[in-house]
Design goal:
By secondary structure, the protein is α/β, with parallel strands linked by helices. It has two domains: 39 residues; 98 residues, no CATH class. It has four helices and five strands; from the N terminus they run H-H-H-E-H-E-E-E-E. The radius of gyration is 28 Å and the shape is rod-shaped.
Amino acid sequence: MARVPLAGAAAVVVALALLAAAARAPGVVQLAYDSVTAPGQSATQRELAPFSSGLDVELLAATRAIPATATYTIVFGSAVAPSDVSGANSAIQYWLLPRRFTPDISAAQWVIAYDQAPETLGVHYRKVIPLGPDVNAFKVVR
């Protein structure tokens, strides 16, 4: 039996690998083209993806309603499950940056109220802006 030199065997392996890669190239090129030209999500949609449980609509509405320099607080009515409070609270605080969160309703310029009527909070308010079902933002008047 004749032995194939090591360099010859390596050349055969390389040639087979190149042929296999060339055979797959059209599919890879098509996949790359499709991913570049396909309609995608906007930057806002990508950022809101983790909050897609309905909170995304409320977050966008709150961003539009509350000025970026404002101080706000969040209140939850008794119908809101305690397990939902911390998650919603954290998501809202993150999304509304650079607005400043305060736990003190008397120091807030705006209030986001979940299942809570503004008349029951003991502060005077000027306007109520609906953010979603059972969620409102209102401007506090001093």
